[in-house]
Design goal:
The protein is an alpha/beta fold. It has one domain: TIM Barrel (Alpha-Beta Barrel), CATH 3.20.20.150. The chain is about 40% helix and about 15% strand. The protein has nine helices and twelve strands. Strands 1-2-3-4-7-8-9-12 form an eight-stranded parallel barrel. Helix 4 packs across helix 5 (about 165-175). The radius of gyration is 19 Å and the shape is globular. The termini are far apart. The model has no long low-confidence stretch (mean pLDDT about 90).
Length: about 290
């Protein structure tokens, strides 16, 4: 890792339970930010160079709360060269707003232009080396480790030399990057591709986890779930989050809600549930360490 690169320790300012900073929610948040919300997340693509009232609103919140940048369009697994100009703009934006963490999807979204969808990368050794090289390039430009998020996918690539879990582990190790763990995506893929979600979760390299996403989804059929971020989190996904905390400890965890956004007072109930689970498992971890020290 190059000297001077910001590492996981620089992201520790992000803690607790968070919520996506949606424009629809700004009026309610300006009136009062619920106590359960410790941080916010934004897609930098939607906010870079944005001036006027929205730009001023963002500045008011980044001066008071920690923020995470979660990218949508870097296309970390794509074939086109990385957009270095875009990455430099992201770095400037993060410095401007003192944002310590940037994450992206372990997927691609370009093919001679943006396709506005997140597509799966083939699980091959060649793809591991290709993606890891691009992550290292992005980290060098940004001067910090980034987190890559396990993605939902609906069709298996025609060539697969390893499992999804093996692919994720190989990429984060080769790239020396962090893992942005999406608990709902594990559940979605477990149904769509018929594997045990808990077994998958327990194979995750916990030492790489920096950040967690929770979200709802849409049941297209009994054996097909679409990751929409447009509904409440369901009980099996909440249980999977509990297993995550039990297995790896408590990490900053964000509620994603991108569509069908209810009023803030309704939405925050799920953020409060995240906060309650974090407190519960933090206390259990502390009690366990205290017992072990005796």
């Amino acid at each position: 890792m190059p000297d001077g690169m910001n590492t996981m320790s620089d992201s520790r300012r992000i803690h607790g339970a968070g919520l996506g900073f949606r424009r629809e929610l700004i009026p309610a948040l300006k009136a009062e930010v619920p106590a359960a919300i410790d941080f916010f997340e934004i897609a930098p693509e939607n906010w870079i160079d944005l001036g006027g009232a929205l730009g001023r609103d963002l500045r008011q919140f980044t001066e008071r709360f920690p923020f995470v940048c979660h990218g949508l369009s870097l296309s970390i697994g794509g074939a086109l060269p990385l957009d270095e100009i875009f990455l430099k703009r992201i770095g400037q934006f993060m410095n401007q707003h003192d944002i310590p963490l940037y994450t992206e999807h372990l997927s691609y979204c370009t093919d001679d232009g943006h396709m506005y969808d997140l597509l799966p990368i083939p699980f091959t050794e060649e793809a591991v080396k290709h993606v890891a090289l691009r992550i290292r390039q992005a980290q060098d430009i940004l001067g910090r480790q980034i987190g890559v998020e396990n993605a939902s996918y609906y069709v298996n690539a025609p060539i697969a030399e390893m499992s999804e879990l093996e692919f994720i582990k190989a990429v984060v190790e080769e790239a020396d990057c962090l893992l942005h763990l999406d608990v709902n995506n594990i559940y979605v893929n477990s149904v769509n591709h018929r594997f045990d979600a808990v077994e998958f979760l327990r194979g995750i390299p916990g030492e790489r986890i920096v950040y967690i996403h929770m979200a709802g989804h849409y049941n297209e059929a009994d054996d097909l779930i679409v990751d929409t971020h447009g509904a409440d989190v369901i009980d099996p996904v909440w249980r999977l989050l509990e297993t995550t905390y039990q297995t790896f400890g408590v990490f900053p965890t964000l509620l994603e809600r991108d569509f069908n956004i209810p009023p803030l007072e309704v939405l925050v109930k799920e953020v409060e549930h995240i906060a309650q689970l974090q407190q519960q498992y933090s206390e259990q971890s502390h009690a366990s360490k205290t017992q072990s020290a005796r």
